[in-house]
Design goal:
Blueprint (H helix, E strand, L loop, with lengths): L33 E6 L7 E6 L2 E4 H6 L12 H7 L5 H4 L3 H14 L7 H5 L2 E3 L3 E4 L7 E4 L3 H11 L15 E3 L5 E3 L2 E4 L2 E4 L8 E4 L3 E2 L2 E7 L18 E8 L2 E2 H7 L13 E3 L4 E2 L7 E2 L17 H6 L1 E2 L2 E7 L1 H6 L4 E7 L7 H9 L10 E3 L14 H4 L7 E2 L5 E2 L7 E8 L7 E11 L5
Amino acid sequence: MTVQLNETHDVALRSWVASANLADSDFPLQNLPFAAFRRKGSAEEFRIGVAIGTQVLDLRAAFAADAFAGIAALNTPAATRALQSDSLNLLMGLGQETWSALRLALSRQLREGAAQQAGLQAALLAQGDAEFSLPARIGDYTDFYTSVYHATAIGKLFRPDNPLLPNYKWVPIGYHGRASSIGVSGQQFRRPLGQTKPPTSDNPVFGPSKRLDYELEIGIFVGKGNELGDAVALDDAESHVFGLCLLNDWSARDIQAWEYQPLGPFLAKNFASTISPWIVTLEALAPYRLAWQREQADPQPMAYLDSASLRDGGAFDVQLEVLLQTAAMREQGIPAQSLSQSNFRHSYWSVSQLVAHHTVNGCNLQPGDLLGSGTQSGPTAPEAGSLLELTAGGKEAISFPNGEKRIFIEDGDTVTMRGWAHKPGCARIGFGEVSGTVLPARAI
């Protein structure tokens, strides 16, 4: 793979930002994820920042404070524009060498005893005092279907004798989604309207979705793009990936069941998708690489989707969790309740395979494009990444301590997803969280 361990991963590193040194922090010095933010309630222009503990470091202010003086890769005209931009697109387009140089500079300047501490104090803002926008302008969005456990579970609901279609284990399945309705954590959206086909009716009906669901996914942000007509080779693919975020790709299951044949998802998917504000770089995740494996009995990937480096370390060990809080829970002061936990390591197709396959026909990816991993379900029932799986297709309700039950998402429900990576000998790094709330459908 393209990113190796270096001094930024040293578990002994500590920051002069005290909150970054807490054992349960998502954002220690070894993480340094990126976002776009401004002071909450202000009319300020958004700018890019980096999370450190409970704070966000304003990179525009850090640049003005000469935090990157003497670093050639960060003092080009292109880098200067990128560090002072209102989104991450320009930085994404500069490529891995610049990203790594910036990460190293930030790590050194935020360590205990750094000479720049006094100058950078004024560039910090408490995350609680910030509001976030989408971290990048998303030009295109492609959603994949990379969990074989999810695909099998869903397939069993509709095709018990043949749950997986014959192409699934040969090709990364995906569809082109809607970028305009992607929102950042905290997104509120109305329950979608559409056509559904009740099993007891000969004709479809129109109205609000009754089977609204979440999908636990990883978002993959494209960094440096490729020219139209060019393909990105598998072993170069990760150099085109800026980082990962959390993604909730909301789904209206009843609308989807009626419309998806023959061309796939449309209104069931394009009404809202929610991502976390923080993008965790692949460099930060280097300690959490795992061997990518394929069962010997399964078809092995074609040559353009296979390599020794993929097999050695193409998977990521990222723990994922879904929680739900109803409106009644909020009123009663009851915290969100955990529904399931899974792990990105279960993905049947890797990050690099998705990029390589997406471009093998000459498709041009651009900085800020977003790829969705598809629902990340694990091999056991408690690791399901959607309510459709957890409730056995809507047949088994989930019960909560306050007596409420859920089969699908109700109005007023807030779904929160979290992600983190941790193992002995390495610093715990997190993704923060992504949350979204469903509002009642608009009047018909």
